[in-house]
User: Fold this.
Amino acid sequence: MLPRGEEIAPRYVAGGQEHDVGSFMDRNTIVGLLVIRHGKIVLERYGLGLQEHDRWSTMSTVKSMTAMLVGAAVRDGALKSIDEPLTQYLPKLRNSAYEGVTLRHVLTMSSGTRWTEDYTDRNSDVNRYSKSLADKVPGGVLALMASLPRDHAPGGTFLYNSGDTYLLGAALTAAVGKPLADYMSETIWQPMGMECDAFYTLESDGGQEIGGSRAGIVLRDFGRFGQFVLNDGVIDGPDGGKRVLPEGWVTAAATPAFTLVTQPVSDITHYGFSWWLGDGVMSALGHAGQRIDVFRDEGLVVVTLGAFPEPMYVWPGDHHRRNEVVEFTKAVRAT
Assistant:
């Protein structure tokens, strides 16, 4: 079990009023809140019926986790380099827009393929991707990705693309010769002493796992994964630390690959190896308010799990929940 330290009680100002932890969770439909400082839990709260052993959807935060699993495969030698071509592991992409695209390109969302990640447009690429998953079409996502045209040369332009991470996970599966869940379990999950089993969702019955969305994890295990990143991919054990990620991998993941033209959240300015980056923070972000913040210089991990309303149900005078999470996290850092 994670040890516990003295509990903190951060307060912050929003909407002209001061708010405590309970008010923060109520105002922002937060279902889970966890703060780990120097390896000890200093704040843990649940809301909206979530219990400590209930799994909650990762949404796209799992993209950042899959990116760390790529690092483990590099250290294991299953991947020689992230500059290997994607088609080496996914030959069905040959002669498509993914010809010449490397693992690094899909890690950094710069494959150069045309893609629309618009959840409100039922005909967008991401919704065609989601429909294939909902219909459980074997090989459907791979066929969709192979059909995309190219918009830019690989490596030159950032474009958020959930399909890119699906391909990254499929290539990783081929490289290690086993399901992502098995590889995650043996390299990170069990050695880290995670409390509960987690899961990747499958594309189809018995099919490829979805490496970039829809996994399920309990709150404290989200935090443990953040601690794994904070520890530079080294897992403590009775015989000392075991290095799972190559030396320098976390630093490389936290090095900006692209400056963001449009910021998804007020404190995020760059993108790295499937991690969103800001001043001192590595963030895994997911739809509807899922977020893992790792402050490497401060020994701090903050996890917020949310149930933010969909855009069509947000009233015009509502506040920006993602940015309020940032303000709360600033208060945590100052406490």
The domain at 26-283+292-318 is CATH 3.40.710.10 (Beta-lactamase). The radius of gyration is 19 Å.
